[in-house]
Structures are given as C-alpha cells and as structure tokens.
Amino acid sequence: MADSDPEAPWSQTARLTIDLDAIARNWRALAARAPGAETGAVVKADAYGLGMARVAPALARAGARSFFVANAREGAALRRILGPGPDIWIFNGFTPAERELFAKARLFPVLCSLRQLREFRAALPDLPEGLEVGLHIETGINRQGFGMHELDALRAEGMGEARATLLLSHLACADEPEHGMNLRQRGAFAGRSALLAAAAPGARMSLAATGGILLGEKFHFDLTRPGIGLYGGLPFGQAEPVVRLEAPILQVRRILRGESVGYGASWTAPRDSMIGVLPAGYADGLPRALRGAKVWLDGRPAPLVGRVSMDMLTVDLTDHPRAAPGRMVEILGPNQSVDQLAAAAGTIGYEILTSLGARYERRYTEADPHEAAG
Ligand SMILES: *Cc1c(COP(=O)(O)O)cnc(C)c1O
C-alpha cells in the first residue's frame, strides 16, 4: 500500500480518481437494457463534474454517437474534444447570440419554443447546410418545450427550411417507477409526436434518460439519453461506482472530554478523543449540510464531527489506533457511494457529483484506450 510507509512523502491534497472503464461499462450496461434503441450520452455540466475532456472520448470509444449538453458553449467545447464525427445536441435550443457556435461546431439545437424555431429559421442563411434540429415536446414537467397551443401553431406555420430529425421529451418522475406521471407523459409524447408527422417526417423519438431506460421498453423509443447512470448514480442501482475520493490525514490531535471541535463549537467530545483533520471542505463540494456522515479508514467508519469548513473536515479517529498523518481516508468509494453521501446532506447524487471541486488532484484510470478501440 502506498500509504504504509510513514516516512514516505505524502501530498496535502485530496485525490479524486475517476474510472473511465467503469463509465464505459455503465454505458454498455444501459445500452444492453434498451437493445432496440440507440444509446446516447449526456455530458452536460462537464460530464456531471467528472471532466468532459476525458469522459466524452471514453464514451465515444465505448460506442456513443449522439451526445447531449445543455448549452452551445459546452457543445463547442465538446466538438473540439470529439472531432467532427458524433452528433451533438443542445438541450437549451437555439439562440441567435450563439449562432456562430452552432455554425462552426455543427451543433444541433433541440428547439424548445415557437420563438426559437422562428429565430432558427431567420438565422438559416448564416448556418451551414444540413444542420438538423430537434423539437422538445412538453408533456408534463413544464420546463422547456412546445406546449399544446405551440404545437398547433407549429403545424399551421410549418418548419420552413428547417429539418427536424428528433422529437424529444423529458420525464418528471422516472426515478419513481410506479408514479402515474410516467405513463401519462409517455402517452402524451406518443400522441403529440404523431401530430408532427407532417412537420417532421421520419423524425426519431427520444424520451428516456437513465430512469426512463430502467422503466422498460415502452419508454425507449429510438434514442435514449442517459446521464447519471453512466457516472454511477441512482436510479441506476446496478451501476458500477465511478468515483473514488480520498484525503490524507493532515494531522491527528488529541482533545479532552468536553472540548469542542470546529466553527460554532457545535460538537463537544463525549470522551477523550483523537480528531483527524482532512483537507477537503465545502469549497470542494462536500456540503456544509452534511450530518451524520462518515469517512472510512482500514475498512471501518469514522464519523464526521463538527462543521464542515471551507477547506477542512474533522473526523473522530478515537477508535482507529492506526490513524496517522499521511494515511489516506476514503470519503467516496467502495464503502460510501455518491448517493449515500448525498443522503447525509439531504441532497441527491447528481448534486454531489456536479459540485466536486476543481481543487482535487484528479486521476483518471483506463485500460489502454487504443486496445479498447479495437
Ligand atoms: C440531464 C438530462 C438528461 C440526463 O438525465 P439523467 O437523469 O442524468 O440520466 C436527459 N435529458 C434531459 C433533457 C436532461 O436535461
């Protein structure tokens, strides 16, 4: 073990390890659950915080051909990473201010409103030939998308020279399989898509994100859009863990019963205690709201005590006689999933992943990518 020699030099920075092979395996596992559909990949928000520059090529090598990001700036960055081959879809649709990004990076907007469609059509003379668009059909989540009256207007007005090749909608409750919303939205999506047969002839249909894939074949349509499941998060319970977050113990301090630890003196030692100081805090994406969370050393838990501060955590190592400066403690990994840590902060795995800070030493593990490509 790298940390077994107490004299060896050790880093004062916490380390985030991202397993690109696990991401590729999660993509293949989700693809296998929807064998009748193409499986895309959602890499918005810097691939859920894990680093689009490394994650997207690994997904492309696994076989992904359709990528989704939120906005055109992300899309342009992704185009530089992936090169000319894959389709890149933009969830936020089209805005004239980004027209050059759409043109240069050949980004496909998922149009969300009549206004966007009109602006896209007006910009067509400045856009390259063959730029496809999607249409986001609102079916119940009430964020983006064409509502019923807008669909009527679209059918009356037509698509002009714009070519819609993808009809998309998004489920509000896909992580709750029994929720009545799922079938209602599915029905609305199928019905409203049928109304667009003339406006968007031959367009493919896409409804399922990670949760939708797990709801079964009825929800798969032509193209799926998994995000969180690729990165090891719920609702894909069978996902392989992708991230490992470890921090060195900076210092172990002995305190007496009745002494307190951290800001606000919110924790008071019930016995003489050994307190470990770890170099990661809320600036690194470990929420200040964490309550009752643990870290792991030698396969055993050590509870967080006191408040999470900006750069530091404090943990109770009294029952860990082998704790010493330089030894690595697990914050995320085999003993504690992203979703377990999220639960201790009253949030979801998505938020933990996308908050992981820029200050970690990041390591990516991957089998020889050239071998994997063969
Ligand atoms: C983020 C997002 C996804 C991916 O959702 P996951 O739950 O992470 O799989 C798919 N579609 C849309 C429209 C999204 O905004």
UniProtKB/TrEMBL annotation:
Requisite cofactors: pyridoxal 5'-phosphate
Pathway: Amino-acid biosynthesis; D-alanine biosynthesis; D-alanine from L-alanine: step 1/1
Binding site for substrate: 143, 310
CDD domains linked: PLPDE_III_AR
GO cellular component terms, A-Z: cytosol
EC code: 5.1.1.1
Gene Ontology terms describing biological process: D-alanine biosynthetic process
Record bears the keyword Phosphoprotein: no
Residues bearing the modification N6-(pyridoxal phosphate)lysine: 44
Domain Alanine racemase C-terminal: start-end pairs: 242-365
PROSITE patterns, per database record: ALANINE_RACEMASE (PS00395)
UniProt KW keywords: Isomerase, Pyridoxal phosphate
Pfam families documented for this protein: Ala_racemase_C, Ala_racemase_N
Functional description taken from the UniProt entry: Catalyzes the interconversion of L-alanine and D-alanine. May also act on other amino acids.
PANTHER family in the cross-refs: ALANINE RACEMASE, ALANINE RACEMASE, CATABOLIC-RELATED
Family per similarity comment: Belongs to the alanine racemase family.
Name by which UniProt lists this protein: Alanine racemase
Source organism of this protein record: Oceanicella actignis
